[in-house]
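Appendix C reproduces, verbatim, an entry submitted by the partner laboratory led by Prof. M.T., so that reviewers can inspect both the input and the predicted structure.
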Amino acid sequence: METFRFRLNCIDNYQATPTDLDPVLRRRAGPPQRQGAPQVPVIRAFGATETGQKVCAHIHGALPYLYLEYSGSLDKDVGTLCKETVCRRGTERPQ
């Protein structure tokens, strides 16, 4: 596959019904697996090529993730605190 390059001017995203370009997020029995699947993120990039041609690229299959850097220790106290927080949240009832 040949690389397509363009100068990026703006980028945003939206949620859309999955297409064949998106990974299957849930495995379901029965015909079409994508029917009833949750919406997926699509990145939309705007820009121009070296020759000045305008570009609006819809990028499928890029799923978001979260990265948190933690440089502290992972001793028992931190684990206990996390467990207590999760347990407390699980037992809280809506008012």
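Residues 5 and 12 are 18 Å apart (CA to CA). Additional entries are available on request from the coordinating office.
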